[in-house]
Amino acid sequence: MTKLITSLIRRLSDGLNRVILLLERRQNSPTQRSKFVDLAPTDEADEKGIYAEAIEFAMNSPKVFNIAITGPYGSGKSSIIQSFLKRYKRDALQISLATFISETDEKGVSANRQEIERSILQQMLYGADANKLPLSRFKRIQSPDVTSIIKSLFITLGILSVTYVFNFQENIVNGDYFTPFSLENWFNLGVFSFSIVFAWVVLHHFYVASFGLSLKGISLKDVEIKPANDDETSILNRHLDEIIYFFQRTNYDLVIIEDLDRFNNADIFVTLREINSLVNANSGVKRHIRFLYALRDDMFVSTERTKFFEFIIPVIPIINTSNSIDMVLAQGQRLSLDVGLDRQFLREVSRYLNDLRLIQNIFNEYKIYVANLETDGENLLDTNKLLAVLIYKNVYPKDFEQLHRGLGTLAKILDLRDKLVEDGERKHRNEIMRLEKTLEAGERQVPGDLKELRNIYAMALLEKLPSNTLSINVNQNYAQFVEVFNLSSSENFDEFIESKVIYYKSSNNNYVPSINVSNLQNEVNSIKSYQQRREEIEAKAEENKTKILSKIRDLRPKIASIRTAKLNELLRVDFDHEQDLFEGFGDNGELARFLILEGYLDDTYYQYTSLFHSGRMSPNDNKFLIQIRAFITPEPDFLIDNPHEVIAAMRSEDFQQSYVLNVVLVDSFLSNLIRYQSQVQKLLDHVMSDFERCEEFLDTYYSSGIYVKQLLTELATKWGRLIPAMLSSPNSKEHVMKLISNIPTTTLRSHSRDFEELPVFVSNNLSEILLNLPELEPERLTCLNFEVKELSTIHQHSDIVNALFEEGLFALTMENIEFIFEVILIFDDRESLYKNNYTAIRATENKVLNQKIEENFAYYLQDILLPLKTNTEEDSSAIQSVLTHDDLELSVLRAFIEQQATKLQTLDHIPERMYCPLFESNKIQPSWKNCLSFMESPVFSEDALTTFLDRDDVRTVILKQPIPRDEESQSLRSFILKANSLTNASYSDYIQVLPSIYKTFPSSLEPGKIRILIDQKKVKFSEDNFDSIYEHRELQIHFIASYIDEYLAENDEFLLNDDYLESLLETEIPITSKLKVIEQMDLSSLFDNRSRSALIANIIAESDSNPKNVNEDSARDLIINASPIETQILMLNKYHTLVSDDDVRYILTKLPDPYCEIKTGYSSPRLIDNQQNQELVRWLESRRIISTWKKDTIFDNKIKVNLFRR
C-alpha cells in the first residue's frame, strides 16, 4: 500500500513540475527581460517556418531516409531542430555527442570511434522504456510500477501453490488428489491448476529471456574461446540486431543526430547510413525510419555529400563576424549596459566573436562580476576592461586559469613591462643624442655651405678680372678696396656680387679702371641668383633645425612619461618584438592581440578578477624607504603611492640629500608650503648648492611635476644666480622655457634687466621655445624687451606675433616686413613688397611699422631696399620722402634712385644735391622746365644734362613739348645749339625743334653737328659761312648742295673750280641742277679725266636736256669714257650728229664686242635687239657706215648687221 501511495505522489510531483516549467517559460518570454539567458537551443529560431517546411517535405518523401542540416558551428542548427520538434507531433529520438573530445593520435582515433558508437547505442537504447525492450541484451534498472504488486502476489501464490502440490505428489500420482472431481474439491483443483499456470508462466519467462543471452566466450584454464566478431571495431555493427529490435518495439520514425561532425570521422556516418538502410529494409519495421544529421558543410566533399544524403537543408548562420555586433548590442540592451560600454569597443571586439552561446555566456558572467565588484556601493572600474577580461576568460580559459598562478601567455606579456620601459627610455635617449649630434653637425655645416657658395661666386668674379688685379671695390669714390684673396670673407661680399660694375686696381696701373659684371650671376646659375641660393641654404638649415628641435621636444617628455605609459603603448613602440608574443594564444590569437594592444587587457586585470584591500603603505612606498636607508637614490620618477606617509617616515637629514629629489615628494611639499616649510627650504638649499646634479630631477619634474610654477618661483625669488646657472646648463633651453612660462612677469622683467643675456638667449631660441610652449602668454615675452629675428618662424603663434609687433619688438628685415605685410596687416598684394616696398609700407598707414622704419631708416635703405633688386617701382612721393633724408650719404641715395623705374615729375621740394644724380640716372621726368631749373641751379652739370638729353626715351618725351621761345629760355636753346657732346641723332632731333635760323656756325662744333645744322638749314647760306668751314671740304660741298638753288642764283660770288663742281655733281642735288653745274665746267679737259667724263655722261644720259657747252671733241670724249656700254650707246645715239663718220668709226673701235666689229669686212655682228641698238643701226645705215641690218627671227632674235666689205 505504501508503494502505491509513493507512486501516486511521484506522478503528482512530475505534473506540478511541468506546470512550473510552463509558467517559467511564459515568464521568460521575449517580452520579459532577465538578467541571465540560458545557453540551450531555442525553439523559436524558425519564425517563417521555411526550415520546418523543408524538413516536413523530407519526412513525407518516401525516397528520403537520410536528411542533413548543414551549417558552420554556432549557425543555429540545434535551434532549428528544436523549433521543428516543437510542432512535430510524432516521436523523435535525439542523439547528441557534444561531450566527447576527439584525439589526434591513431590509437586515440580507434578508441574514440568505439566510444562514439557506444554513446550512440546507449542514447538510442536507454532512451526507451525498458519494458518496451524486454528482449534487449542491455539490461537496465527497472523501477516497480502498480502491476508489480500483482506480480509479486502472483509469484507468492504460485510458489505456495507449487509447494502445496509438491507435498501431495503421491496423491497426485495415484489420483486421490483429484477425487472427488467436483466443486467440493475446488481448493485442491484450483491450487493444482494455479500451479500448472504458474509453472508455464515461469517456463515461458525463462524461454523469452533466453533470447537476450549471448555467448561471450568459454574459458578452459589457459584456453579462451570467443566469437569471431568479438574484436570487430564497429560497436553499432556488432549490435545491429539490438538496433533493429529497438525500432521494432518503439514508435520513433525520426532519429536526430547532432555534433557527430566534431570528431571529423566520416566512417561513422557511413555506418549509420548502412544501419538506416537495414532498419528500413527489415520486415519487422512497418514504418519509414529517417535519420536527421546536424553537421558542418565541409564534412563531405560536394559530390560525396549529395550522394550520401537524399535531402540537404542549408542553415543560414544567425551570427558571423559581420553581424555579431548586433548580438553583442542586444545583450547590452538586455542588461541595460548601453551607457557604460563603449560602442566602438563593442563594434571592434565583436568581429572576433561569432558564437552566440559564447556571447551570451560572456554577458551572463559580466552581470555576476559587476554585481560582486559593486558590493561596496561604488563602481570605479572600467566596464570596457571588465568585459575584455571576461572575453579573455571565455575564449582562453586555460590561459586565464594559469594567469592566477603567474603563468601562461598573458602573464609573460605582462612581465615584459619593466624591460619595455627600460628599452623605451634607452631608445628615446639614444635618439635624442643622435638628433643633437645631427643638429650640431647641421649648424657647423651652414657656414661651410655659405663659404662654399661664396667661393663659387668669388672665383667666377675673379675670372673676369685681369690676372694682375690686386684689389676691387664697387665704387671708386668711396670706401676701401678689398684685396682679392680676402674677397670671399669680406663683409661687403654681397655688394660685389650684386654690383653691375667692379672697379679694380692692378700692379701695372695707377688709375682705377672698371669692368662690367652685370651678367656674373647668370653665368654662375641662370635660374637662381646668389641671394636666392644663400637664402635657400639658410632657410633649409633653419627648417631642418626646426624639425630636429621639434622631434627633440616631442621625445623629452616621452622619457619621463614612458614609465607611466600603458602596456599597450609600450608594446606598440616595440612592435617588432611583439610579433612573437601572441603565438601562445593559438589560432585565435588575433583577439588577444586586439585586446592587449588596444589597452583593454593590461596589468590592471586583477582589479576585475578579485576584490582588492589596501593597507596604510603600498609596496612601492616601502621599496622607496628601503632604498634610501641603503643610501641608494631612487629615480626621480619613482612612484610613491602615499607620499605623506613616506615623508613622515623619512629622517630630517634625508631632506638635505638627493633622496628628496622625487617628483611625488616635491609635489607634496609644494602643495602645502606651510606644513612642509622646512622641507621646502632644505630642498631649495640642495638645488642651489648643487644645481648640476639636480638637472636630471628638474628635467623629470618639468615633464611630470604638478607644481613647477611654485618651484621655479621659489628658486627665482630666493636665488640671485638662477639665470646664469640655467644659461650655462646643457639643458639651458628647457630651463628657460619653464622659467618664462611659470614665474611672475614682474620677476621675469626684473631678471631681464639684470641679466641681458636672458633676452638675447630667448631671441636666439624663440622658435624652439614657442614650439614647446604654444600656449605661452604674450606679455611673458614682451616684458623681456628683445627683438624677434624672424617672425615667420613663430607664425603659428598669432597672439604672440601680434603682441611683439605692437610693441615694435622685431628686427627690421625683409622677411619680417613681408610677414607683417601678409599675416599681421593682411595685405594680399605681396608682389608690391618686391616692386615698391617703401610705397607699400607707407600705404598701410600702420604707425608701428612706419615708425620702426623711420627710426632705422639708414639701415632700412641700405640693408633692405638696396639689396632688393626687384624694388624698382616706388612712387614719386616715396622717392621724394627718401631723398629728403639729409643724414644719408649721397652715394646711397644715388644707388636708390638708380634702382627705381619711377621718374620724379618735377624738381620742386627736391634737395639740390640730388639734381645731378637725378639727371644722371634719368630719374626725372623729361621736360624743358626741369632742364631749365637744373641749369639755373648751383649744382648744374653740363655733362649730366647732356647725357640726360642724349637718352632715346628722354628725347622721345621731351620733343613732344614745344621748346620755350621766351627770353628766359635763351640759355637752354643756346646750350642745345652748342651741345657738342650730344650724339648726332640726338643733336639732329633737338636742332629740328629750335625755332630760329642762326647767322653763323657755332665755334668748335664738330663736323657732324655742322652737317646737321646744314641739313636742318638752321644756318644762313653765305660765302662767310662757306669759308668758315674751309677745313672740311666735304662739308663745304654738302653746304653748297643743301643750298643749291641759292648757289645757282648767286654763283658769281662763289669761285669754285671743276674739282668742287665735280664733287657737287656727286651729291644728291636735282638733275636739272646738275646740268646747270655741268654748264659751269670746262669740258675740254675730259680726254684726260675718264672718271669725270663718265660722271657727266651718266648725268646727261639720265636727262632729256643737253648741256650747252658740249661740242664735237667733248662729245667724243664723253662717249668713249662713259660706262657702262648701254650709256655709251645712248650717248652715241644722242651726239652722233656732232661727230664725223671717221670719229664714229673710231668710237666704234673703242667699244667692246660686238660693237667694235662694226667696220668693213666679211663678218656679220649680231646686236641685242633693243631700242638703243635699233636706233644705232638705223643712223649707221643712213650714214653708209654699215651696209644693211635686219632682225634674225629664225635663230636668236638678234639684230644682224651687214658690213661693207671695202
UniProtKB/TrEMBL annotation:
It comes from the Bacteria. Residues 51-410 form the YobI-like P-loop NTPase domain. The chain crosses the membrane at residues 146-166, 186-208. InterPro entries: P-loop_NTPase, YobI-NTPase. Keywords: Coiled coil, Membrane, Transmembrane, Transmembrane helix. The keyword Manganese does not apply. Residues 520-547 form a coiled coil. This is YobI-like P-loop NTPase domain-containing protein. It comes from Vibrio atlanticus.
